[in-house]
Structure formats: C-alpha cells, structure tokens
Specification:
Structural class: alpha/beta
Radius of gyration: 17 Å
CATH architecture of the largest domain: 3-Layer(aba) Sandwich
Strand order of the largest sheet: 2-1-3-4-5-6-7
Number of helices: 10
Number of strands: 7
Shape: globular
CATH superfamily of the largest domain: Response regulator
Largest sheet: 7 strands, parallel
Distance between the termini: 26 Å
Length: about 220
C-alpha cells in the first residue's frame, strides 16, 4: 500500500516546515506539496490530487472556508482536514458545511494530528472532541427548549445519506459508497429536505451534528 499523500496549506512557512518534518517522518505519510494561501491551495490540489489537504482557515487570498469548497470542487477525491488556531464551534460548523472531513486545533498533540490524518483518509470524520461536544450539547439544549418540536424520524438509509452529505461526499461518492444509483441518492436527499425543512448543506451538517448522527464514524483527535 502506498503512502498517504498530503498537501499542506498554511501561510506560516515555519509551521509548514515543521509539519512537513513531522509528516515525512511517518512511514505511511508523505507531503507532496505546500501552499501559502487559499488560491494556491486550490491550484495545488487540482494539480497534485493529494489524498488529504491539510488546510488552515485563516490565510491570505481566498479564505480557508472558501478554499475548502473550491478544493472539493477541483479535486473531489481529496479530503480536507482543517488545522487551525480557532477553537470556536462556529468555525467547526462552517468548515464541515464547506466540505471538510475533519477539524483539529493547533494546540493538539502531534500524535492527535497524525491520528486525524489517518482517520480522515479512512473515511472517518475527525473532530476536536471539546468542540464537537460543545456543538452537540448546544443542539440538545435547543431541542429541549420550550416549544421545540420532536426530532423528525429518519429511516436508516436516510440517516446514512445524511451522514455522508454532512461529511462532504458528493452524490456520486455516496452512491458508490452505499451501492445505490445517483438518482436514488438524489431522491433520498430530496426526502431529507422535505422531512427536515433544511435546504442547504450547511443546514444538513448542523442538523447532523446537533442530532449526534455522526455516531461511531467520528473519531476523537486527542
């Protein structure tokens, strides 16, 4: 099995150098490129097609959140792992809504970052546990507030589709993963919109996080 190919996107050259040394020291990982801003990250992702793009969300040029969306469009097979100093739930929500598959805060240990890279490569969602817990708890509080309606029941297949949508998979990738046709996936997504009253992917991500629908596919990064 070949090494996991990684693109590092961060505007701090010293940090990029440190990350390259850490990653290249692992037998199963290798850095195939670096970018110092969002626009360069998109170009490098489109050219190199790395397995993982390790992206900061505070960079010059195209913002990190926008860069995530553009990387997912330019290189659909590349999964994005955010590495950032921002430890607020709002940034986590925005990153996942843009298509990121993981979110690690820079204060995390080196071992946590390496574990997150491997988890994201395997198709899991790697989230900073404190942030993920905060997001879920805030959702539980909202649902428990006076006047809040009951959680809309979803079928097992609808839950599976929702989880994959929230993790940034395209309709084609969801179809391949679940052994369905793209048209069937589109039908399930339409049902989700009808049942939940949610239109955008950001809203679906928020619902999935608030409802704890990521389940066992979410890994702890520390």
């Amino acid at each position: 099995m070949g090494r996991i190919r990684i693109l590092i996107a961060d505007d701090h050259a010293v940090l990029r150098t440190g990350l390259r040394m850490l990653i290249d020291s692992q037998r199963d990982l290798e850095v195939v490129g670096e970018a110092s801003d969002g626009d360069e990250a998109v170009r490098k992702a489109a050219t190199l097609r790395p397995d993982i793009a390790l992206v900061d969300i505070s960079m010059p040029g195209s913002s990190g959140i926008k860069a995530i969306e553009r990387i997912r469009e330019a290189a659909p097979t590349t999964r994005v792992l955010v590495l950032t100093m921002h430890d607020m739930p709002a940034y986590l929500r925005a990153a996942l809504a843009a298509g990121a598959s993981g979110y690690v805060v820079k204060r995390a240990a080196d071992s946590a970052l390496l574990a997150a890279i491997r988890d994201v490569y395997r198709g899991r969602t790697a989230l900073d546990p404190a942030l993920a817990a905060s997001v879920v708890q805030s959702g539980l509080r909202r649902r428990g507030a006076p006047g809040a309606g009951p959680t809309t029941p979803l079928s097992q297949r609808e839950r599976e589709v929702l989880e994959l949508v929230a993790q940034g998979y395209t309709n084609q990738q969801i179809a391949d993963h679940l052994g369905l046709s793209v048209k069937t996936v589109e039908t399930y997504r339409a049902r989700l919109v009808e049942k939940l009253g949610l239109q955008s992917r950001a809203e679906l991500v928020r619902y999935a996080l608030d409802s704890g629908l990521f389940g066992g596919e979410v890994s702890s990064t520390v």
